[in-house]
Automatic annotation (TrEMBL), chain A:
This is Proteasome subunit beta. Component of the proteasome complex. The keyword Transmembrane helix does not apply. CDD domains: proteasome_beta_type_3 (cd03759). InterPro entries: Ntn_hydrolases_N, Proteasome_beta_3, Proteasome_bsu_CS, Proteasome_sua/b, Proteasome_suB-type. Component of the proteasome, a multicatalytic proteinase complex which is characterized by its ability to cleave peptides with Arg, Phe, Tyr, Leu, and Glu adjacent to the leaving group at neutral or slightly basic pH. The proteasome has an ATP-dependent proteolytic activity. The lineage of its organism: Eukaryota, Metazoa, Spiralia, Gnathifera, Rotifera. Gene3D superfamilies: Glutamine Phosphoribosylpyrophosphate, subunit 1, domain 1 (3.60.20.10). GO terms for cellular component: cytoplasm; nucleus; proteasome core complex, beta-subunit complex. Keywords: Cytoplasm, Nucleus, Proteasome. GO terms for biological process: proteasome-mediated ubiquitin-dependent protein catabolic process. The keyword Transcription does not apply. Its main location: cytoplasm. It holds the Pfam family Proteasome.
Automatic annotation (TrEMBL), chain B:
One of its GO terms (cellular component) is nucleus. The active site is at T43 (nucleophile). It comes from Adineta ricciae. GO terms for molecular function: threonine-type endopeptidase activity. This is Proteasome subunit beta. GO terms for biological process: proteolysis involved in protein catabolic process.
Amino acid sequence: MGDDILSYNGGVALAMKGKECVAIACDKRYGVQNRTIATNFTKIFQYSDHCFVAFCGLATDVQTVSERLKFRTNLYELREQRKLKPVVLYNMLTNLLYERRFGPYFVFALVVGLDPKTGETYVYDSDNVGAVSDNVNLATVGTASEYIFGLGELFFKPNMNSDELFEATSQALLNGVDRDSASGWGAVVYVIEKDKITVRELKGRQD
Amino acid sequence: MDVLNPMTYDAEEDQLRDRTKYSQMDKHIIPVEFQQQPVSTGTTIVAVEYDGGVIIGADTRTSAGTFVMNRFTDKLTPLTDQIFCLRSGSAADTQAIAQVVTYQLDFLSAEMNEPPLVRIAANCVRRMIYQYRDDFLAGMIVAGWDKKLGGQVYSCPLGGLLVRQPVTLGGSGSTYIWGYLDNNYRPNMTKDECYDFVLKGITLAITRDGSSGGCARIAIINKDGVERIDVLGNDLPKVFDL
């Protein structure tokens, strides 16, 4: 696998927008270069009722950054006495990552969110030093991100309902990871709508 | 040009080696994102003798770094009608060896007017690996059936060793199933027991090894010829779900 730090543990995540719904999905592999150690390592974390973040990259940093971000969001909720909005979350993440600009964490992140009152959707893509994209329709991070981008662009249609969105996201992820030996072994897909969040576990190729 | 040993000295071979020296410069000239890792059949290969023949099996993944170039490769390469080789290591090196040995055996069988012995095929492979041991990255298993000794499995690993073994494993995925072999292999198993052993071994290795994956291809070689079986993903035996 070479000595690329970002493919040492492998892993991938994908986020896609629909009409008043967003989906975020990740694979479940935890491995060390060639060897697969566990297949229950999900990379998606919840920070508020409708805000989720996926971290991909070095596994130790996935765990550390998700926990440190949780610390900051907990304090925010205590001080402000209100729940986080997606825009606030991505700003906190940018700040957290840029603090380590010259000795960075090795994680790339996806932030997704939904405003339950207006139905407005948010999907942001961040690199490992806190450069955040605009609010985009489709974003992927991880070792198989190039392969999944291609499929995602193919399956994406504007204004999909939640079922179509789930299908598009799952197919893009499952087929993309078949071309990457550092990701796979099943997937988890979260579909976030105004009134409910559906979590589905997919069983893909176990290789 | 020496027909029996076509690789002793070859002007094209020299040119090829010179040309590939440019790939050493690639590391300094081309940005990291565009550098291609060498293509390897980092793999799992299994071969076992039974009374009357051999059963050989391999996974179907060819990768370049983490990119999976081929999800359904055929790593069971025929050298003659009843002798196969299993390839692991650099895809280019093993394909080149297989091509040359196929030619050599074809010529030999024309000279002797009978199919070549498995040991002779294995020795041709071993000779090539040993001769170019500093350049090649090839670990191969040669298995087949001949009239004289029946089913045989010969292992020709990296440095140029030749040894006959009743059962052998190869490739990066084999490290995960040596324990399985030690626990589950018994001498004098029947054909069906050997088939299950090979299939289960490949499945276990596919599950754990990143460089092995896809489906399992198995071949049963005996006096009646070769029977090829492809076991696709869904039909692989169920193993413990991690």
